[in-house]
Amino acid sequence: MAEYRYPNQTRAGTGVEIDAGLRSYMMGVYNYMALGVALTAVITMAVAANPAALAAVYGLKWIFFIAALGLGFFAPRLIFSGNTALAHAAYWGYAALWGLMIAPMVGHYLGVNPGMVFQAFLITAVTFGATSLAGYVTKRDLSGFGAFFMIATIGILIAIVANIFIMSTMFSLLISIVTVLIFAGITAYETQQIKEMYVEGDAEGVAKGKSIFGAFMLYGSFVTLFVHILNILGIMNRE
Question: Is residue 50 part of a domain?
Answer without folding.
Answer: yes
